[in-house]
Backbone:
């Protein structure tokens, strides 16, 4: 239970253990509750870090939704989940908010296994409308009368699957309420015709002058009061966002002030009484009520722990330059040298390191919105006519464009370079954002080259190597800082498809794919093992692998990707095809989703700390001796 000082600070919020308690409050206390909830959110995230600005913008909306609807029986689905911290606080998880995004703590997103108030897991964008519509179908099939509410932002609305769901919902004519939280903001500034239309239509001087001028002219005529009203509605229908949604079959209401909790409550109550597809357009401010976040909503989208009085964030600790920064410098440098280079990102300018590029080369920078599929096909089109597109995208988000990667790029052998950030464990964002699968899902695609740098300096050389390769190539690198390796400013490339022997030893050869090379180095020194920086997952350095297999009793592969189907599987497949019986130990991420924690903790869960790697290699060696003797005895018997 909250302690005494907290109770004095939050007299309305503290007794609320569930939305049932919230619904017992008189409506005239909701505004005071919103102020307490906003301050509680600031206090909490200032200690834990996490997503802040989005939650600040939906405090009043969150209260109104839980106040009007009978959650959890009524299904409330939040899109992405960045804005769901106030929802967590009101749904019985306030006493656990100190564990937010930490190992064994609360997820930073909505999660079905965490609470009955989270009917659908979130993390990736634009899933709320489709999932809520599916729940509405399930309720109809079961003969149950319940409400289904999907809350989606204007940034998430830029994704094609959101429109697919809207189109389907209009055709099904089921009870579904979509709440469009229009804050003119996603993680990066929103782009695209829809987002621009929403902002432009609400603030258009033309609309306001034309509307007022028409009313004045018509009002001067006798008996024209009704016509004036119809004129205003007609004008509104021509230029306001409601036209779009009404054509899709939705009963559109809005836009209304997203920070007026009384207006939200009364409007939602009225819309609850309606039937069929409905859309409430709410205009809000990201970071509302906290001056630092209002002034810099992008900076305060995701924060480290900070001083709540000043907004000053704690500096992130780390070793060398981040891989993202290496990419940022390289793509700007190469763009100066090669006018064909274009940069493409799906709404991740800041996270992918393209802020500098967007400012220096605005005509060659393309943020396509939250539209990963389009980003890849758009880049393929550029490559068809001689440009050199570089797609900056997170590993977890490339999953959304798998068909386009395979069909539109690789099948046509087009010269597109993929800079894949956040490969491997990503820390506090957890399983929804982990880049655990790209080697497995990309390795099986013909024509596609895959490179995995061991450090920051090698990352730059690999990006240049991939760019100069006349076909599709993918460079995958992890979140955060490297080991402090020197990063040059030249355009050096690596020998295509060739590994690098780092250390020679006996019995064991460790084949490291990517940044686990440093862990492999420490283990190799303890075991007097050979260490190889493999560099290329595809094409694999087959000569090196065969040589290592012939000279060692045990090969150990290391990768920050699921072991199933990953780089180590490629080594095993090669040896099986060549008929080589050398034992292979594939060490990678396990066949499970690893939840939030630090990246170090996640590697420990995967059994990939230095100590765990050493222990697993020694265990494999212990098993190897009798097995090797048995094989030799069988061979001698056959020869005899």
Residues:
């Amino acid at each position: 239970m909250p302690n005494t000082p907290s109770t004095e600070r939050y007299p309305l919020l503290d007794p609320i253990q569930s939305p049932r308690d919230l619904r017992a409050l008189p409506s005239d206390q909701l505004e005071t509750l919103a102020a307490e909830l906003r301050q509680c959110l600031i206090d909490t995230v200032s200690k834990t870090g996490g997503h802040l600005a989005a939650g600040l913008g939906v405090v009043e909306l969150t209260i109104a939704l839980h106040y009007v609807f009978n959650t959890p029986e009524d299904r409330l689905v939040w899109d992405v989940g960045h804005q769901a911290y106030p929802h967590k606080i009101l749904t019985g998880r306030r006493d656990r908010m100190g564990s937010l995004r930490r190992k064994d703590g609360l997820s930073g997103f909505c999660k079905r296994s965490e609470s009955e108030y989270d009917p659908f897991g979130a993390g990736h964008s634009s899933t709320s409308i489709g999932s809520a519509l599916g729940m509405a179908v399930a309720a109809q099939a079961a003969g149950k009368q319940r409400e289904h509410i999907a809350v989606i932002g204007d940034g998430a609305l830029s994704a094609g699957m959101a429109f697919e769901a809207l189109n389907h919902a209009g055709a099904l004519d089921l009870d579904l309420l979509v709440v469009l939280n229009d804050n003119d903001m996603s993680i990066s500034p929103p782009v695209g015709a829809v987002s621009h239309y929403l902002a432009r239509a609400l603030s258009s001087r033309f609309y306001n002058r034309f509307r007022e001028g028409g009313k004045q002219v018509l009002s001067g005529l006798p008996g024209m009061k009704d016509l004036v009203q119809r004129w205003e509605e007609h004008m509104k229908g021509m230029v306001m966002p409601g036209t779009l949604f009404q054509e899709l079959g939705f009963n559109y209401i809005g836009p209304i002030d997203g920070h007026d909790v009384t207006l939200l409550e009364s409007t939602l109550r009225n819309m609850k009484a309606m039937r069929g597809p409905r859309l409430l357009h709410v205009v809000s401010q990201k970071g509302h009520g906290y001056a630092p976040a209002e002034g810099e909503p992008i900076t305060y989208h995701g924060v480290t722990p900070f001083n709540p009085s000043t907004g000053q964030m704690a500096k992130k600790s780390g070793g060398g330059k981040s891989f993202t920064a290496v990419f940022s410098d390289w793509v700007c440098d190469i763009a100066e040298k090669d006018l064909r280079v274009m940069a493409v990102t799906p709404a991740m300018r800041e996270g992918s390191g393209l802020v500098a590029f967007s400012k220096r080369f605005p005509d060659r920078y393309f943020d396509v919105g939250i539209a990963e599929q389009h980003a890849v096909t758009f880049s393929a089109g550029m490559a068809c006519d001689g440009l050199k597109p570089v797609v900056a995208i997170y590993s977890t988000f490339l999953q959304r464009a798998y068909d386009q990667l395979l069909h539109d790029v690789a099948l046509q052998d087009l010269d597109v370079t993929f800079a894949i950030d956040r490969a491997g464990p990503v820390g506090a964002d957890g399983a929804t954002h982990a880049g655990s699968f790209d080697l497995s899902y990309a390795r099986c695609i013909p024509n596609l080259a895959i490179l995995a740098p061991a450090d920051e300096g090698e990352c730059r050389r690999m990006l240049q190597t991939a760019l100069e390769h006349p076909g599709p190539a993918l460079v995958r690198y992890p979140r955060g800082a490297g080991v402090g390796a020197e990063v040059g400013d030249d355009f050096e490339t690596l020998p295509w498809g060739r590994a690098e022997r780092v250390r020679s030893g006996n019995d064991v050869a460790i084949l490291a794919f990517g940044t686990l090379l440093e862990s492999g180095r420490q283990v190799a020194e303890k075991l007097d093992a050979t260490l190889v920086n493999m560099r290329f997952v595809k094409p694999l350095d087959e000569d090196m692998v065969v040589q290592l297999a012939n000279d060692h009793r045990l090969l150990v592969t290391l990768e920050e990707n699921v072991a199933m189907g990953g780089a180590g599987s490629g080594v095993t497949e090669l040896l099986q095809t060549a008929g080589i019986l050398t034992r292979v130990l594939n060490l990678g991420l396990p066949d499970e989703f690893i939840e939030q924690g630090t990246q170090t903790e996640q590697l420990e869960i995967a059994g990939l700390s230095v100590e765990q790697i050493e222990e697993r290699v020694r265990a494999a060696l212990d098993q190897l001796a009798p097995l090797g003797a048995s094989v030799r005895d069988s061979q001698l018997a056959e020869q005899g």
About this structure: Residues 323-476 form a domain with the Rossmann fold fold (CATH 3.40.50.970). Confidence is low (pLDDT under 50) at residues 1-7, 202-220, 234-239, 627-640. The chain has three domains: 4-295, 323-476, 501-639.
